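Service request form, structural biology core

Requester: graduate student, group of Dr. S.
Request type: structure prediction, single chain
Budget code: on file
Notes: please return the result as structure tokens.

Sequence provided:
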Amino acid sequence: MTTEERLQHLAVKINDQPEQIQGLERRYHFELTPEGRYGVFFSGGQVTVETDPTPDEDACTLKMSEAHLGKLLDGNLNPTVAFMTGQLKVDGQPGHALKLHQILKTYSN
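Core staff response, request fulfilled:
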């Protein structure tokens, strides 16, 4: 499954049971190496995924390898450790990245 397909699958799962994202209004961008850019947007109790999103200074941007994003989506990457070891860089508030991790943990089961 491609990264985009995995993100879309996660969005469907969240949108089917949106209780954990009610009231969350936030934009996340993923800048992946070797290449790839995705946006995940939470608004109005729904989540949408976008490929190659328009730059947005209000978004929390996570920079990592595509492999590390896969591990994060699977629940096999601790974002705090990844951040401290340089495997993950965050532009924006790190607390927003931790909130995303909580959401991913909730819906990865």
